[in-house]
Write a structure and sequence with these properties.
The structure holds two protein chains of two kinds.
Chain A: E1 3-5, E2 10-14, E3 19-21, E4 24-26, E5 32-38, E6 44-50, E7 56-58, E8 64-68, E9 73-78, E10 87-97, E11 100-105, E12 109-114
Parallel strand pairs in A: 2-12
Antiparallel strand pairs in A: 1-4, 3-9, 5-6, 5-10, 7-8, 8-9, 10-11, 10-12
Chain B: E1 5-7, E2 10-13, E3 19-24, E4 31-37, E5 43-50, E6 53-57, E7 65-68, E8 75-79, E9 88-95, E10 104-105, E11 109-113
Parallel strand pairs in B: 2-11
Antiparallel strand pairs in B: 1-3, 3-8, 4-5, 4-9, 5-6, 7-8, 9-10, 9-11
The chains are: A mainly beta, B mainly beta.
């Protein structure tokens, strides 16, 4: 069965500091993986996704993530955090079916950015 | 840029009442989803819909829930008799279903059952 684990419920970083949000997945086949961001009162916006190819993927807003098959991980990183990055971050794994794709989300990591 | 739109943004209803949450998916998408997020908790899958029928549903999606695509553009979630525990943010999403493609989410409808 597919599952996603985000071990960090809440992270606080200083503005300008680097950031890494952890995500581990469980999936029987080659996964495709996503990171979404949810700002307060907003929907989920796609930051980046991994499907195949280069294991380091670049996304919007300066984010990147690295797929490591050996560790079943897809950690999200940003070299220098901005105050506007404060939000909830969700990792998701996609499963392809004949009837469409299914998406399974982690519990999310809440990011607080302090001045 | 095409987007998924949901109405209303916020709905307050009395326990036991029926509610219909509406969504307009991206026009060329064929796969539609409803997710729920109880305040402070994870995003939970409710149901997926393709070719005018439910393709998959979770344990949450019991007999009080139903989905419909009444015309070529709208996708609705009906809760027949709301309970207090149905209070949550409900997200509609759509996808073109291609291998490796993502789901596009609406802004959500916050449902408050009183």
């Amino acid at each position: 069965a597919q599952s996603v684990t985000q071990p960090d419920i809440h992270i606080t970083v200083s503005e300008g500091a680097s950031l890494e949000l952890r995500c581990n997945y469980s999936y029987g086949a080659t996964p495709y993986l996503f990171w979404y961001v949810q700002s307060p009162g907003q929907g989920l916006q796609l930051l980046l996704k991994y499907f195949s190819g280069d294991t380091l993927v670049q996304g919007i807003k300066g984010f990147e993530a690295e797929f490591k098959r050996s560790q079943s991980s897809f950690n999200l990183r940003k070299p220098s955090v901005h105050w506007s990055d404060a939000a909830e971050y969700f990792c998701a794994v996609g499963a392809h079916r004949n009837t469409g794709n299914q998406f399974y989300f982690g519990t999310g990591t809440s990011l607080t950015v302090i001045p | 840029e095409p987007e998924v739109t949901q109405t209303p943004s916020h709905q307050v209803t009395q326990m036991g009442q029926e509610v219909i949450l509406r969504c307009v998916p991206i026009s060329n998408h064929l796969y539609f989803y409803w997710y729920r997020q109880i305040l402070g908790q994870k995003v939970e899958f409710l149901v997926s819909f393709y070719n005018n029928e439910i393709s998959e549903k979770s344990e949450i999606f019991d007999d009080q829930f139903s989905v419909e695509r009444p015309d070529g553009s709208n996708f609705t979630l009906k809760i027949r008799s709301t309970k207090l525990e149905d209070s949550a943010m409900y997200f509609c999403a759509s996808s073109d279903g291609g291998f490796g493609t993502e789901a596009f989410f609406g802004q959500g409808t916050r449902l408050t059952v009183v």
